[in-house]
Amino acid sequence: MAGSGKSKGAPRGRAKTWMLRGLKIGLAAAVAGLLAVVIAVVIAMQSLPSYDSLKSSPNGQMIRVHAADGSVIVSLGPSFGRWMDYDQIPQVMIDAMVSTEDKRFYLHPGVDPIGMARAAWVAVERRGSGRRWQGASTITQQVTRNIFLNNSYSFGRKIREMVLALALERKFSKRQILELYLNKVYFGGGAYGIDAASRKFFGHPATSLDLPEAAIVAGLVKAPSSYSPTADAEAAIGRAGVVLDLMQENGVISASQRADADIQNVKLAPEAPQNSVRYFTDWALPQLDLLIDEPNEPLEVYTTIDLNMQKAATAAIQANVPSGTQGALVSLDRDGAVRAMVGGLDYVTSNYNRATTATRQPGSAWKIFVYMAALEAGYTPDTGVTDEPVTINGWSPRNSSGRFSGDIDIRTAFAYSINTVAAKLGVEVGFPTVADMARRFGITTPVNTHPSMVLGTSDVRLIDMTRAAASIARKGIAVTPYGITKVTTADGRMLYSHQDDTSRVLVAPWVAAGMTDLMQTAVSTGTGKAAQIGRPVAGKTGTTTSNKDGYFLGFSSGITTGVWMGRDDAKAVGGLQGGRAPAHAFADYMKVAVSKRPVEQFETQVTLPEWQLEPDEEAYYGGPDNGIDGGRGGGMMVDENGLPIERPRADPYEAGSDDPQMEVDPEDRPRQDRPQPPRIDQQWIDNVLGRDRQQRPTPAPRPSPNP
């Protein structure tokens, strides 16, 4: 029996021995593993950067652009908003995030064993389905993943994430980790951190987040693209309801607070416009490099653009531009603030900015520089001149009416855009003097000094021509277009503030007043009549050879606006003249732009031009006012350099016209078919202006120009 007991006890002894050995090996492995983890955590702690370094945002600079009324019109770059210290974060935001993402955050050491066990069980249930693990990552692990790692789901990345999370909890406090998380987590729509998310989705800083808004923001972390309020408001509200339920379950809000949280009526910030206003932002924002030196902090850029005026400008161009052509508009306030800018019919289709980049010939709009040079040289609006044939170095400009009016005054010549007079004034004052005047008033493109330059053969930018007209409206004080009023950081620190410079006087006030006299007469009775808006307006039309470009420049009640229309390929456009579509677009826009401004009378009142003169046909039929008679009667065309060239005139009635929409100029019609203009006499002018009959002014004798 004793032998039998030994034989039974031996297997039990061996099993016990192996069990003890297994326990020892397991314990040793656990100790070794724990020691390895401790060593890894210690090493990781040593490699972690300081808290201040972790707070920096390495992912790019956010720029929010505001309109003149303060509304956000566009956000550029990743948005990090303002850094929120823990004490500045609303408690409801902290509670919502912890309840949703990591309810045991204050209990675990960086890794949640319970959460890991649950995730492992879910993984076993979903094996073979291809679905990812869920529920294992703590807030601390998410911080380490966002800052140090990536979103790949490899086993090695998960181990590194856990080690870094343990190290992070050893080096920093729970408050610091939460602060990092709430300022760096991605909420969708380019918004990183709760302040950026709050500003994007609700239009206010995160410091004023209430319970329903906090629930919406906290719900975004799970799937930013799916639950974004701007992409799917219904899904965002549904997810916010889940967050509120979790907050009640975790005891951070009561049942009554849950019931009072009205997530259905949360007011979302409207989406910023993204079409025509982008012409303006594309022009204004590159100027930041010259204004400030702040490459990292998020910026708030406040601009001059008026959204109502911008809308009216876009509508005016789209409604009036001839078929198949493009249009542009620039509108400046009296100090140079850009209130509206349209660079084309549609930004999405073409982002080329024709208002600031394109260079095209201005036609007779250029005459403002010719006549200002003459006024500065001693001429006055009443100075007598003679409209007669003139030849300058083989170039013989002609009036588009084909007639010469004899003795008239400067005011009349400008009002009806008479080309022979402009040419003679160019000779009198000197073509370099005219070029200098253009340079003085802000023309930045090359200016030729050929005789034909007086009729606008130098390429210019619309914004430069508008700037020149604005300087006239400001009584000769230089106007510089600007689009940025101030720049601040997200926390309100001022980096730049625009200051108006009134120190540069371009011409004497009486020269600017004389030019205003001429320009308002052109709108009241001359080529710019279509630009009338029921209050005083001064302006000038411009049309180039073969109707390739149409211009109108004008100002009223402190607003100066320039309009250009034409084809990008510079082909002729039937019926396109400055006194037609551009002037109509100007009027449509200005009626809105100045509607809330008081009527301002010019210091110089309108004086009627010579009563016996019939104006150039641009005033009625839209004949080009470049004064070169298409090759008829010895008239000359000019090339792109302003040099005279012979160019035969084609018969528009011949077959083969490639533009069925092309309008036939009245001068091209058979004589018996041409509509006859009404006789322009004093009675007709009185009827147009609604004035009592008055005596025709006697032109003053022309003084000798200054040497």
User: What's the overall geometry?
Assistant: elongated
Q: State mean pLDDT (0 to 100 scale).
A: 80
Number of helices: 23
The stretches of 5 or more residues where confidence is low (pLDDT under 50) are 611-675, 693-707
Q: Per DSSP, what share of the residues sits in E-state strands of 2 or more residues?
A: 5-15%
Radius of gyration from CA coordinates:
38 Å
Distance linking N and C termini: 146 Å
Strand order within the widest beta sheet: 2-1-5-10-11
Q: Which bin fits the share of residues in helices?
A: 25-40%
Decide which structural class fits the backbone: alpha+beta
The main β sheet shows up as:
5 strands, mixed
Q: Give a count of the beta strands, DSSP E runs of length 2 or more.
A: 16
Structure characterization notes:
The chain has 23 helices and 16 strands. The C terminus is likely disordered. Strands 2-1-5-10-11 form a five-stranded mixed beta sheet, with helices on one face. With 707 residues, it is of the alpha+beta class. The chain is elongated, with a radius of gyration of 38 Å.
How is this fold's topology laid out?
Blueprint: H1 2-47, H2 51-55, E1 63-66, E2 72-76, H3 91-101, H4 113-125, H5 139-147, H6 155-171, H7 174-184, E3 186-188, E4 191-192, H8 194-202, H9 211-219, H10 224-227, H11 233-249, H12 255-260, H13 277-284, H14 288-291, E5 299-303, H15 307-320, E6 326-332, E7 338-342, H16 367-376, E8 384-387, E9 406-409, H17 410-415, H18 419-429, H19 431-440, H20 462-473, E10 484-489, E11 494-497, H21 509-524, E12 538-543, E13 549-556, E14 559-566, H22 581-593, E15 637-638, E16 644-645, H23 682-689
Parallel strand pairs: 1-5
Antiparallel strand pairs: 1-2, 3-4, 5-10, 6-7, 6-14, 8-9, 10-11, 12-13, 13-14, 15-16
